[in-house]
Here is the input.
Amino acid sequence: MAFTKVELLSDRHRLEGFTCGKPSLDAWLVKFSRNNQQHGFTRVFVICDGDVVVGYYGLAPTVIAPNQTTRKIRTGMPPDPIPCLLIGQLAVDLNYGGRGIGTALVKDAFQRCVAGANLVGGRAVVVRAVDEEAERYWQSWDFTPAKDNPSVLVRSLSDIRGWLELSVRSQ
Here is the structure.
C-alpha cells in the first residue's frame, strides 16, 4: 500500500495500536499529541497507511543555553537563551520499519525547521533523545550532544540547510 505524504495530524487519523517499541513514544502519540497540538504546544506531523498513523514527529519552538552548545551555534553574539526549533517524539511503528519512513520524517522535519527559521529566526535544531539508542540515531544525523546532557542533541540550521541542498542536487 502507498503511504500518505507527511501531513499535519487531524481528527481523521487513527492512533490506536501504534507501537514503536518505546512505550513513552507510543503513549505520547495516543494520549497527548492531539491535546498538545490543539493548545499550540506542538505541531504533530504524520505518515499514514490509509488513515492509520505509521510514523510521526512533533515540532515546536525551544531554546538552548549558549554554554550547552557548540561554538558554531554560539557564533555571532546570539541571545541567551538561543532560539531553536525542537524535533520531538519522532517514531515509526515497528510493523513499518525499514521502509524509509523515519528518513522521510526527518527530511520533512528539516525542511519545516528551515522554513520556520526563515520566517521567525532560529539558530539550531534540538532533539531530546528518549534513550541511548535514540541518542545514537540522532548522532547518525550529525547532531551533537549538549555539553551537560547527552540526551539533548543539537545541529545548526546552517548545516541542515546545506544537507538539504545536497539532498536536492543528488536526486
